[in-house]
Amino acid sequence: MTENKEFRSGYVAIIGKPNVGKSTLLNAFLGQKLSIITPKAQTTRNRITGILTEEGYQIIFLDTPGIFEPSYKLQHYMVQNALKAASDADVLLLMAEVYAPADEFERAVFGKINDKKKKTILALNKADKVKRDALLPLIATYHEQFGFEKIAPISALTGDGVPELLDIIINSLPVGEMYYPEDQLSDLPERFFIAEIIREKLFMQTQQEIPYSATVQTDEVKERKKGRTYIRATIYVERESQKGIVIGSKGGMLKKIGQDARRDIEKWMDSLVYLDLWVKVKSDWRDKEKDLREFGY
């Protein structure tokens, strides 16, 4: 495990392109699902804080939105959020896939972040998808291009290499005090995670532009008698036509999203839930500063 018995603590920013496995890795570190996961790129929009506390260390992981070329204000916010997390962190955990060397955009991002003179670790994800012989030249290329001292082939999905990567992170942390109570998993509020679970189901059930044009707000959470929690939440979309798609024929799509979300919320809260789900239109909210602030971006 760690090289000495001094308590280590610090912030670790997980940085990389969209859909490279950042949220899957955070969940693997924590041993439970905190960040939502879908096959679609750009699922993560906010910086998700996950706290891992064990004997001898506390790591505050920052799961960030993927870094890409933004097209509208929400995407600009997402990229800025990721870069700010990098500047706030004690250790940078960069992620890439094993299929090919870094492309031009990825090299620019890694080069820029590497200039911050912080301890930087590279995790090459999806290593279970290639033969080990193919990893060696890729690792050598990353060493040559960026000078990473630590490069760890992993599979965030299967867990292969994750314990070894965790050891590298622990030994990269500064000696310090505990930031949060040892039983705290995140510093984000309950309403945030409820909205994220609903948004995950929206991503999974809808196609094309709908998931990217929608956001979710948790409006009310109230405990009722007989151990059931009442939750009212609203899905916001940009156009009336999108509202019709999310509601579906005879309300079928909204019912499916609500059923899937309720099951996960009940599991996460360990409580029976009545989910009251609504759909409203907020025109072009992704490109309006006022709306982005209102939705917590």
Task: Give an overview of the whole structure.
By secondary structure, the chain is an alpha/beta fold. 37% of the residues lie in helices and 23% in strands. It has helices at 22-30, 73-88, 104-114, 132-146, 162-172, 190-205, 240-247, 252-269, 289-294; strands at 8-15, 48-54, 57-63, 91-97, 119-125, 150-153, 215-223, 228-237, 272-281. The protein has a six-stranded mixed β-sheet with strand order 2-3-1-4-5-6, sandwiched between helices. The longest helix is centred in the last third of the chain and has 18 residues, at 252-269. The chain starts with 7 loop residues before the first strand and ends with a helix.
Summarize the structure.
This protein is α/β, with parallel strands linked by helices and 297 residues long. It has helices at 22-30, 73-88, 104-114, 132-146, 162-172, 190-205, 240-247, 252-269, 289-294; strands spanning 8-15, 48-54, 57-63, 91-97, 119-125, 150-153, 215-223, 228-237, 272-281. The longest helix has 18 residues, at 252-269.
